Amino acid sequence: MAEPNKPAILVARAVFPEVEERLRVHFVVETTPAGTVWSQEELVQRLQGKAGVLTTGGERIDAALLAACPQLRIAANLAVGHNNFDLAAMTAAGVLGTNAPDVLTETTADFGFALLMATARRVTESERYLRAGHWKQWSLDLFAGAEVHGTTLGILGMGRIGQAIARRGAHGFGMRVIYHNRSRLDEATEAGCRASYVSKAELLAQADHLVLVLPYTPEAHHSIGAAEIAQMKPTATLVNIARGGIVDDAALARALRERRIAAAGLDVFEGEPKVHPDLLAVPNVVLTPHIASATLPTRMAMAMLAADNLIAYLTQGRALTPLNPEVMA
Ligand code: GLV
Fold this sequence. Notes:
alpha/beta, 12 strands, 7-stranded parallel beta sheet, Rossmann fold, 5-stranded parallel beta sheet, binds glyoxylic acid, single chain, 13 helices, 36% helix
């Protein structure tokens, strides 16, 4: 029911009841049933008359949607990545975008390391073998994997999460850490995570374990394809916890099948939740459904941050983590 003093918002994907409760203090809230993902057309329909929307990385806020939803003032993403936002179009339409950084950094780095370990030490491949009843005897080289401690950890994209992974590798596993990034970190930050800057070619050639943590942009599309994989060590592993589309999944599946690299761990996929069928067909890849930030406390913190951005902006004209702050001016 319309409440004259409360703006209306849409929560475009089911969130925790505590988050809805907080939003209801300030807004008339339309929620989305668990398991529902709106098509773009349905999203536009549900956004009619809404001043704000809480999105996940799965809802596209683009020029066509903005033109069809003139009352929209803010889209608050429950994700640190925001490649689902056309920020230039949002700014042109006077719509604020916010994301959910920081609260997920350490949790996501934990998962990056978990995926690295599972990939190097063949955790899921060996579990499938055991569950299928193939384990008849111990043998010396049964599921022998790659060493992790003391090896070279390569990181492509050295933002907050990349740095947190570097700290784990350097301080926890005695790894030599090298990284490549659009811009080099200052000396103190490099020293804090014991990481050395190298060119992308050096990163590819030297890493024993390469972890991708860069944001998705059109320039980052297929940053790792057949040509890049060809520069990696045949014993190397590759982990992607960044975004689908950064890796050319078909080229990677081919390289894994031909053992051009040892193994891969992927939490994100181009066109997810679809997964390239060639990846499903190779044994030396660990596949997880975009869960790098998925602990209950962290997902709660991300959802609350998105909610707080909606509340701060629609009630006071400011936001906690704005992506296009010029809109607030
Ligand atoms: C998850 O992928 C995020 O960007 O927060």
